[in-house]
Design goal:
The structure is a homodimer of 474-residue chains. Chain A has 474 residues and is of the alpha/beta class. Chain A contains 17 helices and 13 strands. In chain A, helix 12 links the parallel strand 6 and strand 7.
Chain lengths: 474, 474
């Protein structure tokens, strides 16, 4: 019989805090009847966000096209949706039950390419786009591609989305941390990048790629064009591929911020020698179709020999799921002004994005008022990364670096666990994403309904005050 | 810019013939207007098999539950389907747009567990079942789990389904081949297993698991209970985990053969110290829902510490796609006799399985009549592994083992390529699955409509005769 000692040591090491111990404890408490506010994960439809009618009508008809034949049902669907489904079935007569080509249905890849061209005003090649089961799987494919040997290093931001650190552990690669600048609203800093790559190289690590998450997870930041230019130049100088995680590109809540894709900025800079992999997903934005596992990535400056290895990798898993491919199609091919479904679509879209904006504002403003708690206003994504001041309770001067790190990561873990037990609020400790030594954070989504967010702020305030009081007593 | 020399060498090495060069050539020819008969892959709905009404009604309503509210549409759906969807939505109020738990929706895992219990008359634990994106992804998860170090060895049948060899290459593990006994209808042979593990150990390989595909892909064989008992004892003796690929369990076309699950045989033998991972999929059987990427695996004799590592691994990819989960639910929870949708369901099911049986018989009988071609009658799965006699055309006595292998694998590749170019029939060379030295095969599905299969037989005969003639001329 297999036992834990004989398993894959990389798997044992890998951590994924977003679904880690605190969340498991939340499930237990829920089973026992406690009301839990799940702020641990960007899962909008688990928090009462409704799916878009447009997306679901498309899916229902693609799954069961017989509905179109019936005159009575026809009346229940928007006219343009019916036409689109007819076009989908003409393009893909096998329907959703057949494996597609490894890289996804070609007409959907063409639609993705048009979407990118229109978004950025640049060219995009549909034969360089791969449809994936959510962005995560695409990201893991590119990690697999670029992992030349166990010394291959991937630069990732700290704090980061733990998919990255988990994948690096799992694949036995090397992680190169670069700290985001909290004081400058979590932007990337050139000196920090240079010193972190320098240090890695000194250790014998061979850097192959840099990961950038924009808008930021867990930070809620939106990078400026200047910052992106700096990153591209840095990648060019060090011959790094860029993995641009752009899954929150629709989630921007500030009039003073704009999403700049890496593809567009690279095009503006006329950089043609940096390999770029840009990821997008149907899980975020205003669709929030996490369960359907739809997504894509586009490659730029990747030659056909390399690209064909990616296709082969996809082919081993056959293809991404077809319903997810259809949701991706819906995402990149929204109803147009003159179409029947347009009004409903826009109403639903604006309501979802408007709500998110409002909730980001409540969190951004109210949490900053709590003494000992601070955060950079979340301009994008679905998260706030909240700094908490925990007074020193132990003399760490005589501890080793490792001991300090362990001790400190336990501190915000304990904070979050106690928060959960007392209030039912489920957030993820900052240590799950990474943070600078001697700082403490937690990540919360702002997905629950606005009332609950207000309630959450009140509960957090009370909890934090008591927590500090108790700390000082001990 | 990234170039091929800097990529993951394991990825470069990995081969997946089912979607390899011959298939890519078929796509090209199709683009040029040639009619292709795709016999390369078990993709029933790409070859005119219709989806089951039951499955698609369930999916359509789960995607767009608003349809249930309307009285007019209600009439278009079977009553029991509507009730089931209402139950699904009650069990999973988030709908299909939310991430589920990492291992899948619990009510579906319970349904899987009931299905196994009823199939085998044994106990099955729903908390030891994980829902996956097709069987492939589950299999790769277990490979990841068991890969302790680069010397970990996985025993796989030759011929095999190339997912296995590709995954072993990709993950940097060691492949331990055992030959299936073609003369004994591709069953496993104890002496062969012993000698192959022995040889591997001598090379310093540490065997961790044995893969068995039953019913067989590409062989079309169905293993006897005795053969399975022998395998379980072998695994027990050598402390190997068993990966039982049972995705073709519904595809049996002989009255003299029966599917025996490893779980049931193990239970009968009262073996409790061999870890078993059994895989099933919605892609095969009579559903043929390949595109939806649904599936599950059940673990037996796997302790909770080990199991929790599997859950963590799933959590890094968040969860399998929800539409695929629903198709899995439909597969394990078919309509019952008294239910409204039963009649349609049974009619569709029997028609699909009846057709497959007929086509297996045509192939099994007719190809055996062709001189220089022979096959074991396909009792199961969707494939025949056809032996072709190619007369020696080169003196191989002075060639090294490696040179011979390369030369021979080119020979059936060339055969299949020429077959494609001349007739439009797309099959996969035996070398893509592995075969004994100095033997040649190809794998064909029997999925095309019966008329086309008859046509295919005729074309194959003519092609083979000409091919041999031309060989002897050179």
């Amino acid at each position: 019989m297999i036992n834990i000692k004989k398993l894959n040591p990389n798997l044992i090491k890998a951590q994924y805090a977003v679904r880690g111990k605190i969340v498991q404890r939340a499930y237990e408490l829920e089973q026992e009847g406690k009301k839990i506010i799940y702020c641990n994960i960007g899962n909008p439809q688990a928090l009462k966000q409704k799916p878009l009618t447009y997306v679901r009508q498309l899916l229902a008809l693609c799954e069961y096209p017989k509905l179109i034949e019936d005159q009575k049902t026809k009346a229940l669907f928007h006219k343009d949706v019916i036409e689109k489904v007819q076009r989908i079935l003409a393009e893909n007569p096998n329907g959703l039950g057949a494996y597609t080509q490894s890289e996804g249905m070609i007409f959907i890849r063409k639609a993705v390419s048009r979407f990118i061209s229109e978004r950025d005003g640049i060219e995009s090649d549909p034969t360089k786009i791969i449809l994936t089961d959510g962005a995560s799987k695409g990201i893991q494919s590119v990690f697999t591609l670029l992992l030349n040997n166990p010394n291959s290093g991937f630069m990732i931001p700290i704090p980061q989305y733990p998919l990255y650190s988990a994948t690096i552990e799992l694949y036995g690669a090397k992680q190169i941390n670069y700290y985001l600048d909290e004081e400058k609203h979590w932007e990337l800093n050139k000196e920090e990048l240079e010193s972190s790559i320098d240090e890695a190289k000194k250790k014998g690590i061979e850097p192959v790629a840099i990961v950038v998450i924009n808008p930021g997870n867990p930070t809620g930041s939106v990078l400026s064009k200047e910052n992106i230019k700096m990153i591209i130049s840095f990648a060019q100088k060090h011959n790094l591929s860029i993995l641009a995680d752009e899954v929150y590109q629709e989630n921007i809540y500030s009039d003073h911020h704009k999403f700049h894709s890496f593809a567009k900025v690279m095009d503006e800079m006329k950089v043609t020698d940096v390999s770029l992999f840009s990821f997008h997903s149907t899980s975020k934005g205003f669709l929030g179709e996490c369960g359907h596992r739809g997504g894509y990535f586009e490659t730029k400056n990747v030659d056909s020999e390399v690209y064909s290895q990616l296709i082969k990798l996809q082919s081993i898993g056959l293809c991404s799921n077809t319903a997810g491919q259809i949701v991706t199609y819906a995402m990149v091919n929204p109803p147009q002004k003159h179409e029947d479904s347009y009004e409903t679509y826009m109403k639903e879209k604006n309501s979802i994005l408007g709500e998110l904006k409002k909730k980001a504002e409540i969190l951004g403003e109210e949490l900053n008022k709590i003494k000992g708690m601070s955060l950079k206003f979340p301009y994008g994504a679905m998260y706030a990364f909240v700094k908490i001041d925990l007074p020193q309770e132990k003399n760490i001067r005589n501890m080793s670096k490792k001991e300090i790190a362990e001790y400190e990561s336990k501190r915000d873990f304990n904070y979050c666990l106690e928060l959960l037990e007392e209030t039912g609020i489920c957030v993820v400790p900052g240590s799950g994403f990474g943070q600078k030594p001697h700082t403490y954070h937690f990540r919360t989504t702002f997905l629950p309904p606005a009332d609950e967010i207000k309630e959450l702020v009140k509960k957090l305030k009370k909890f934090h005050e008591n927590y500090l009081k108790n700390l000082s007593k001990n």
